[in-house]
Amino acid sequence: MQNPAEHSPKRIKKALFLDRDGVVNINYGYVFEKENFHFMPGIIELCRKAIKQGYVIIIVTNQSGIARSYYTEHQFKRLTRWMSQHFWKQGIKIKQTFHCPHHPDFSFRCSCRKPRAGMLTKAIKRFSIDKRHSIMIGDSLSDMQTARLAGIGTAVYLRPELPKYKGRLVRPHPFPYYQARNLSAVTALIN
Fold this sequence. Notes:
Blueprint: E1 14-18, H1 43-52, E2 55-62, H2 64-67, H3 73-89, E3 94-100, H4 118-127, E4 135-138, H5 141-150, E5 154-158, E6 168-170, E7 177-180, H6 183-187
Parallel strand pairs: 1-2, 1-4, 2-3, 4-5, 5-7
Antiparallel strand pairs: 6-7
């Protein structure tokens, strides 16, 4: 008798990669205290839908404020724990937050600082992520470049200044991506 599990399709482990400042929280610049950390409108709904669709949530964030001595690694990690607990209370598990504390002008060149793909490739290996079925949401072109370098299937450029319309694919750019005005428009892309 054959094992029924041998014939069942292998479950795809896909990830929703999120930049932090400007996607998870409002980007006031070098946010490291919970009093200055305000969640972006729509981030909770986006993450809930992604989880229902089988995505794991992973945050990838440049934190050059550490290299610039604006705040410490400890302060960043304390805020990250608080943020993760807030998500948890909303029924959302953040698989992990990867961060790059470097800046070439204040520390050294590294392989983790976006637009390099080090944080994404590390996450992909650590959690056996199917990158072709994964999504990266960022608020900068370097986030889009990082997604393409890592081979992420879908990249979404969050641009609040866009006129009101649903996400559209931008092809002329060297690394194609979707543009969305807000996280509600991004939520519609998750399936």
